[in-house]
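target protein:
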Amino acid sequence: MFFEVDWAYWLRDPIAGAEEVVEIPGAKLWFPYERPGELVGALQPFLDRHSPLAAAAQHAV
């Protein structure tokens, strides 16, 4: 089952901690397996902001 992109924006507000919607043009259900580099590129900024290692690095400065 596929959902229109509008649903992602609608869901962002009621989900606690959701920060933004990232759209990857042409992405379909299996794109994480077919295009992993694009998935990592989209996730990396979030992970950089929220990983324990990122928090430790900020405190070390």
Remarks:
- DSSP finds four helices and no strands in the chain.
